[in-house]
Write a structure and sequence with these properties.
Largest sheet: none
Shape: globular
Low-confidence stretches: none
Structural class: mainly alpha
Helix content: over 70%
Radius of gyration: 18 Å
Number of domains: 2
Distance between the termini: 38 Å
Order of helices and strands: HHHHHHHHH
Strand content: under 5%
Number of strands: 0
Length: about 190
């Protein structure tokens, strides 16, 4: 919860990826309250009992949301998908508006690879920004799995090298707009 709050304030992309990873972790724990407490809450020695209870309730709220949204086995919370849709709207604006010059430069390096990436992920009908996140999350999962394939590892590094700067810039602008530091429609 505290990590998520910090990431939400500082880096929207890390926040989304963190929540996706947490969804999978909760699934791996089979939504068991005992496992959630023993694996995710109890190890926090620097957290007092009141905050541990708060943290445990936050985890169970996420479990309840996954159940309510019928995403107990697969899929991501609507909350993160709405954030991705917001980021995609910003992406589309940055591709057109003067304030997006730096973003367009970074995106131009990535754009030729998008059809290949969509084919690799089997995702032809999604927005570019959702594709970015799915690719980055696939890399997270591959790193956890520990791929031995050198060709696969090179592809992973290529994906990170192309997508990360685009997502970082998109996240930076998102937070600046959110804080009122940037007006998208001002020259």
């Amino acid at each position: 919860m505290y990590i998520a709050q910090s990431k939400r304030k500082s880096n929207i992309a890390e926040y989304i990826l963190y929540l996706w990873q947490l969804e999978d972790l909760l699934r791996a724990l089979q939504f068991s309250p005992e496992a959630i407490y023993s694996q995710l809450v109890a190890p926090g020695k620097e957290i007092d009992e009141e905050h541990k209870q708060e943290l445990f309730l936050w985890y169970t709220d996420i479990v309840n949301l996954l159940r309510e949204e019928d995403k107990e086995t697969i899929g991501h919370l609507d909350h993160t998908l709405h954030l991705i849709a917001d980021l995609n709207n910003l992406h589309l604006q940055l591709l057109k508006l003067p304030v997006g010059a730096r973003y367009r430069e970074l995106y131009a390096r990535l754009a030729p690879e998008l059809p290949v990436l969509k084919a690799k992920l089997g995702k032809q009908d999604m927005s570019d920004v959702e594709l970015f996140f799915r690719a980055l999350y696939s890399v997270v999962l591959l790193r956890i799995k520990g791929s031995e394939d050198g060709k696969e590892n090179r592809y992973i590094e290529d994906v990170i090298g192309l997508i990360s700067p685009v997502v970082a810039e998109l996240s930076r602008v998102f937070h600046e707009v959110e804080r009122g530091e940037v007006d998208l429609f001002k020259e």
